[in-house]
Design a protein that fits this description.
The complex is a heterodimer. Chain A is α/β, with parallel strands linked by helices. Chain A folds into two domains: 16-295, 3-Layer(aba) Sandwich (Aspartate Aminotransferase, domain 2); 300-442, Aspartate Aminotransferase, domain 1 (Alpha-Beta Complex), CATH 3.90.1150.10. Chain A is built from 18 helices and twelve strands. In chain A, the strands form two sheets. In chain A, strands 1-7-6-5-4-2-3 form a seven-stranded mixed beta sheet, sandwiched between helices. In chain A, strands 8-9-12-11-10 form a five-stranded mixed beta sheet. In chain A, helix 4 packs across helix 11 (267-279), helix 6 packs parallel to helix 7 (175-184) and helix 15 (359-369) crosses helix 17. Chain B is of the alpha/beta class. Chain B has a single domain (2-266), classed as 3-Layer(aba) Sandwich (Rossmann fold), CATH 3.40.50.1820. Helix content of chain B is 43%, strand content 16%. Chain B has twelve helices and eight strands. In chain B, strand 1 (2-5) and strand 2 (8-13) form a beta hairpin. Chain B is globular. Classes of the chains: A alpha/beta, B alpha/beta. The interface between A and B is large, with 56 and 44 residues.
Amino acid sequence: MKDKKNKGTDPKTYKFDTLSLHAGYQPQKNAGSRQVPIYQTTSYLFDDVDHAAALFNLERGGHIYSRISNPTVAVLEERVASLEGGTAALATSSGMSAIFLTIMTLCESGDHLVVSSQLYGGTVNLFRLTLPKFGIKCTFVKPRDTEGFKKAIQKNTKGIFGELVGNPGNELMDMPEIAKIAHDAGIPLIIDATYQTPYLCKPIDHGADIVVHSLTKWMAGHGSSMAGILVEGGKFDWMQNKKFPSLTTPYEGYHGLSFAEEFGPTAFTMKARAEGMRDFGPCLSPQNAWNVLQGIETLSVRMQKHCSNAEKMVEYLLGHESVAWVSHPSVPDHPDHELAKKLLPNGKGSMIAFGINGGKEAGEAFINNVKLASHLANVGDTRTLVIHPASSTHSQMDEATLKFAGLSHDMIRLSVGIEDIEDIKNDFEAGFRASRKPRLVSNQ
Amino acid sequence: MKFQVNGVEVFASTGGRPFDKKKPLIIFIHGSGLTHMTWVLQTRYFAFHGYSVLALDLPGHGLSSGESLKSIEEMADWINNVIESVGYREASLVGHSQGCLVGLECAFRYPKKIKTLSLMGGAGAIPMNKELLTLAENNDPKAVDLMMDWAHGPAGHFGGHPVPGLYHINTGGMLAKSRTIKSTLGVDFRACDNYKNGFDAAKKIKIPTLSILATGDKMCPVKEGKKLSDLIDGSKVEIIDNCGHMMLLEEADQVLKVLKKFILFNFPALKN
C-alpha cells in the first residue's frame, strides 16, 4: 500500500479532454459569451498613435489586421498548441498552406529538404515541382528507410519532412529515430500529423520540432471547412549553427529583430506570422476557425469511434473473398505494427488501404456501387469516404512515382466514418458484389 | 547583445533596438529558472521609447555562459558588475519573483547606483515548497510542471495569451527546460530559500519603489507583497485582478501600463 504522505503533488493543469473544450479562451474577457465569438472583422481600432506603433513594432500583443491574426483564429491556435504540447501555433487557410508557410519560414533559395516519399499527392507535387521554382530542392526517401534519411542529408539540408503514417499506403516513419538523425545534423523534423490528430499521437513528445495539420480532416471532423495549422515544439535551438540566418540574424523587416534571440521557443511561429502571413497571406477565416473549434470540442469522442469502427472494418476486410490485401497499422502482420503500438497507443487511426481482387476495373465498380460511403477527395469526415487514389488524388503522378510512393492500381483508400458499423459493412457488400462482375456494372 | 562580466559572456536582449549609452538604462531581472524572454512584452516598449534596455539572462541561464550564481547576494553584486561593464553609473531595476529579491538586495547594497525599483510578484522572502525544491535539485521535469501550474492564473490554465497563437504554460515550461533543470531552477530555488535579508534590506531602501501584485498569485501572494511594500518608504502598490504569478505575460498590457507610468515619472526617458 502506498504511503499517502509520500505520494507527492501532481500538477493540476488541465488534461486533453478539458483543453479540447476550453483552451485558448476566457469568457470573462469576451462579454461573458460562453461560446467563442466569431470576430467577423478585417481590422482593429488603435487606441492612439502610440498603440498603433506598439503593435507594429511587436512591443505588445494584439491584433492589427485579420490577415495577420484574428481573435477567433487565435483561440483555435492556442487550443491546438495546448493539445499538441506546443509553445505556439499559426492557423492557415488549408493544410497545404500550412506546409508551404512552414517551408518558406524555414528555407532560403538554394536550400534542400529530405522528404518522405509517401505523402498526399498534393504535397508530393509541392515538393517535387513547385518548391524547385523557389530554388528549394528535395530528396525523397521511402518512409521505412530510416538510414536513407541520414544518407540523403546534404550540407544545405534544412529539415526532414514526412507524414507519420503515409497517405495512402499506411507506412510509418520511425519518428523518434528520424528525429535523432535530424537533430544530429542540426536540422528540425517536421511532421504532418493530420491522420493522427493529437488524440492519437503528439509528435512533439517523440522528437518532432514542428507539426503541421490539415485541420479540414479529423480535427474539424465534419467535412465542412478548410483549415490548416503549424505548431511549434519550442525545443529546437535555431542558434546552434548558422543554418537558419533568417531566424537568428537581424531581420530588416522588423527593425533588425532577431526572432530566435527575442522569442526563443516561439521564434518560428513569430517569424511565420510576422513575415509569412504578411507577405503570403494564407489567413484562415474566423467562421472556419469557429467551425474547426466546434469539431475539436468532440475530438476525443469522435476519434475513439473512428478507431473502433476502423478496427472492425479491418477485421471484416481481412476475411473477405473480394479483398486481396489490407493495410492498417492495427494488423499484426503490418510491417510497422510494433512501431504503431509505441507511437499510437490510443488507436491506429481510421485510414485503411486495401486491394480489391480484379484490379482497376473491380475497384471502379466497387466505388460506383457503394451508396452510404461517399466517393470524394477528402479524408477524416464523420462519414465514411472511399476513393481510388491512382485515378484521383495521386493521378498527377507518373507510373514510376506512383510505384515509389507505394501505390498500386488495385488500391482503395477508405476513411472510416462513425456510422453504425453494420450499415458500413452492408454497403461494402453491395460494392463487392458489383466488383465481382465489373464489366456488367461499369456499363450501367 | 553579448558582453563580458567578470570574464564570462553574458547575453541580454536590448528590446529589439540598438544599445545606446546616451539613454537611461533599465535592467530587467528574470525569475527562477527562466530567461530574458519572459520580458518581451515590456522591454520592447521601453527600448522604442527613449531607454536602453537590458533583459538579462543570469549566468548559466538562457544564452549566457558560466554557472548559475548560488545566492541572491551574489546575483545582486553581479547586477552591479553588469551596470559597470556596460559603462553606466546608474540604472533602474525591474524584477520578477526571484528577480525582486535580487533587485531588493542590489538596491540595498548600491543605493547610489539604483534609481528606481519595480517588483513584480515580489516578497521579502520566498521560502520554497520543500517538494518543489527537491524535485528541481534532482533534475525532475515535474518541478517545471508544478511551477508552471502554481505560477499561472486563469490565463495560463485556459490560455488567452496577449500575443496571438502563443500558449502560456508550454512556453514557460520550455523556457525553464532550456538548460539543465538542476543547474538553473534547482540552484535558483535554493538561493531563494536561503535568502533572509529581504525585510531588513527593504527598511533601508529610499528610492521610488513599485510593487505589482496579482490576486491569483499563489507563489508570492498579495499579502506577502504588501508586507514587503509596507517596509519601503513611499512604496506604491498596484494590484492586478484575475491573474497569477506570471503577470508579466498573463496580463502583459496591464503590467506595462503601470510600469510605464511609474518609470516615466520617476526615471524619465531621454527627450529627443
